[in-house]
């Protein structure tokens, strides 16, 4: 989406070292835990991210319940976290909606 942020589909703990090697410094996970079977938990991803020297933020939301407070919290994390950031959800669609909502509200 920009030099400071990439939107991606579900990532897995084993991918965190490669994400770090690619130059990313932060991960924002907007996918709720237990959304589908065999999905890695946020805790597992956080642990793997930390081991790979990545900052990690868990900001889950249901695509049908995107609120202005969720958009504001995302914008706050976006400004606070080291760049570049990998923002992800299951397919990337929800992450893209969140990013575009923050842009349209002038928060990024």
UniProtKB/TrEMBL annotation:
InterPro entries: BLH_phosphatase-like (IPR005939), Prot-tyrosine_phosphatase-like (IPR029021). The keyword Hydrolase applies. Residues 2-99 form the Beta-lactamase hydrolase-like protein phosphatase-like domain. Its EC number is 3.-.-.-. Keywords: Hydrolase. It holds the Pfam family BLH_phosphatase. GO terms for molecular function: hydrolase activity. This is Beta-lactamase hydrolase-like protein. It comes from Psychrobacter pasteurii. The gene is blh_2.
